[in-house]
Amino acid sequence: MESGRPLAAERGQRDVRTAVSEIDLKRARTEDDALKLMRDELRTPIAGATDLYVALNFGTLQARKFVDIWAIDDLRGFTMRGQTLIIGALATYADAINSPLVAQRLPMLAQAARLVGGPPASPVTLISPLIDWNIGS
User: Fold this and answer.
1) How far apart are CA 128 and CA 86, in angstroms?
2) What is the pLDDT of residues 18-74, one digit of tens each?
């Protein structure tokens, strides 16, 4: 028992199956930094790391070298490129709910974000891992 709480094994739970010490993480501050680290060091981009924790727990984590892109503000929110709505890689549910561009161009995304990304999760939960499509004119 540590700090008054039973250990995972005592609670009938298993420990994390992948050693955290095997993880090599670097942080990028710009898109160029991230792209260089991905190209030169074959790093996998992460932001938030929920999927990383799941893979660590199940012992299915393949990648060991990561680049954290959470600090790259240029990847946040929504913008227009011509007639195309661009969804930033770090766009959150809250961004979708509050974006005038989303309300105008893709109102169903704002509605879905209200249903799926409730208030506790919406400021930090990313949309990009859940979608893989372009919205054009």
Assistant:
1) 11
2) 566 678 889 999 999 999 999 999 998 888 777 777 777 777 878 889 999 999 999
User: How far, in Å, CA of 44 to CA of 55, rounded?
Assistant: 14
The CATH number of the structural domain formed by 76-130 is 3.30.465.10
Give the three-class secondary structure for 95. helix
- Strand boundaries in the chain, DSSP class E: 24-27, 44-46, 65-68, 78-81, 84-87
Architecture of domain 1-72: 2-Layer Sandwich (3.30)
Q: Are 43 and 37 in contact (CB under 8 A)?
A: yes
Q: What gap in Å lies between CA 121 and CA 56, rounded to an integer? A: 22
The tokens describing 37, both together, are 């680290």
Global model pTM greater than 0.70 = no
Phi first, then psi, for residue 80 (nearest 5°) are -110, 140
Please give the angle made by the CA atoms of 133, 89 and 24, to the nearest 5 degrees.
125
